[in-house]
Amino acid sequence: MEVDNPEDEKDRVQDHRRPPKRGRDDDDRDDITHSEPKLKRQRRSPDFSPARSELDQQPSSSSSSSSSSSYPSISSSSISNTTATDSSTIGASFGPAKLIHNPIDVDDVYKVVTMYGPDQKEAAALLFGKATIEWPEGYSLLQVGPPSPGLAKLLTESGVHLVWEGLTQRGMSQTLLLVTPESDRERLKSGLMVMQSDAPTDEPAQADGDPFDDDDDEEFREFPKGKYSTPLMLAAALGEAETIEALLHQGADPNQRDRNGSTALMIAAGHNHIRAVRALIRDHKTKVHMNNSIGADALCHAADQGNIQMVSLLLGFGAATLPKETVWHKRHPLFIAARKGHYPICKLIFDQGISIDLINGVGKSALWHAAETDQTECCKKLLDAGADWKLTPAPTSLYEEDNLLSRSILCVAVKNRNFELLDLLIKCNQWVNLSEIKLPLLHVAATENHVGMMKYLLELKIAIDFVDEDLKTTAINLAFKKKSY
To answer: Fewest beta carbons less than 10 Å away: which of 91, 152, 289, 360?
Structure first.
């Protein structure tokens, strides 16, 4: 997946409450923060003439069909032998990378296909080998909803490879595509323009009803989910800002959803394409605050990417009214950023008036989210900024043993064997040792069979005979009980 290269993250950005500057937008600026004009979003009307005659003259592939099996299979031989329509201009400067998996295992897919976009780091190791540190130049990894039969045919004819398609662990229907240096990107972009110009003017096909969806949501009644991904969504995933502008000029609906409730703006943000995001939000029809089926908006996708310039840009265009209180059915970019360790984005959100101790629907704060994912440096900065380590989430199980982690953030550090975070919390509270701490830390270590952590806690003089008031037993008895099972 080729992404725009954001500048280095900054702890401080311009205050979004400052009156917006008036004037002409500069297409070449990728560092615009949330002082970019809110109201003056005039969409350019580029002179884009798709090569319709070229597409019409190309013979249809006999192997192409509306089914997903029409995609090229993904293998090292198919990559090295595939030839683009114009090999002198398409991918000529890139050396072939060797693919090692055909196809990716289902368990591995869930590491790559995330709720907010493809995990490029995980995908690089799985597709090109563990020694691959950076994503190879010239390749693009796209995560989109199911394409229509016509779009699938275009992808096939353009040499785009199907890596995986199916349902994610959260029930979202996703398709993972690989664009290689040999793929014909120009044909793909021209084909998207042709598909848009030939698109029917009536309402797009809507997805079949899902009993698990909250169809009473006013937002989804106004903008219902569609059946397939659109040309605009593919252009957003590719990061083709000029193609996006041209598609919008042809009448593409920026608010149309795919089967997962995602829009082109969410997809562009989830692929870390800031120029594509800017092209979309400059269109006056774009609703920047919309949420998908899991309650995530474009700002959540940008926060997951850690792109502070994109977050600033979306805030400046009114992309979200950040909830200042607990919201059950919508995701909050603060917690997403904390889980990824993106403290500069957390700080930016705090600067919008959001409490550092805001909790989600189950009582977890940003500090708790960062601790759960071992983001120790982010935890340190949150603690330095005044985050309350004593906040604890509500128990979620009827069994006390399953609720051990909810007793304290120290229990999370013990469970994760995060010695650095444990030391940080001890130092933060100026404890000399753990002899007076009435928390089931040793119980957690025993339950998880973390021998090294148990030894470390004993070195810190934790009481070995401490009887937890909820478990009614000592850590040693609990360990024996677990072992007997």
So the answer is: 289
